[in-house]
Specification:
Radius of gyration: 61 Å
Domain K-box: 88-180
Structural class: mainly alpha
Domain MADS-box: 1-61
CATH architecture of the domain at 10-84: 3-Layer(aba) Sandwich
CATH class of the domain at 10-84: Alpha Beta
Largest sheet: 2 strands, antiparallel
Low-confidence stretches: 189-207
Oligomer: single chain
Number of helices: 5
Helix content: 55-70%
Number of strands: 4
Subcellular location: Nucleus
Shape: elongated
InterPro entries: MADS-box/MEF2_TF, MEF2-like_N, TF_Kbox, TF_MADSbox, TF_MADSbox_sf
CATH topology of the domain at 10-84: SRF-like
Mean pLDDT: 76
CATH superfamily of the domain at 10-84: Transcription factor, MADS-box
Order of helices and strands: HEEHHEEHH
Keywords: Coiled coil, DNA-binding, Nucleus, Transcription, Transcription regulation
Amino acid sequence: MGRGRVQLKRIENKISRQVTFSKRRAGLLKKAHEISVLCDAEVALIVFSTKGKLYEYSTESSMERILERYERNAYVEQQLVTNDAELQGCWSLEYPNLKSRIEVLEKNIRNFMGGDLEPLSLRELQYLEQQIDTSLKRLRNRKERALQDQNNMLAKKAQLQLKEKERTLTEQQNQMAQNSSPLMPTFPSLTIGGNIQVMMRGSVIDEPDENQTRQNMRSTVVPWWMHDHVNHS
């Protein structure tokens, strides 16, 4: 049969209690050392016996350093708990005020929309009307500025489009002018040398020599059909 579960209660026998304390103390110190080595944790263990004798264990860092760290963390946690409690108290006091303000704002919105006007007095209605008139004036002023900005933007856009059309038309006209002026062809000069004597108003021009004429014709580029005409002449 397995070992039954030990009931945790104070050991009445003094000797047995002392023996159990010694065994459990050694086991507790061993477990503290193991967890510090295996898990790389900072461990501080303090045990006082019934006679007031101190037994302690700490990792490589000193016991004082671990206790100071514990006190800092405990103080911070205590402050956080205190602050949370204070904040909860403040919120509990602030909640009714916020709720009433929200109700007033919702009522004002309904009044601006034309609802819940029956409970309002004459002075409240006049004040509401004045607020609505002021809001309408601001709305109209903002609308006029928006329209003016839009008109200015459209005018600038139209001006840019007009300039673009003018530039395109100018380019087309320049292109048409270039296409309508063809280049004039150049022909070789046709020169038939020789002196020709003719009578012109009493002046005599020497007639060319036949040999000189043929020599000039050879050196001149003329069509084939002109050779016979020149020879016969």
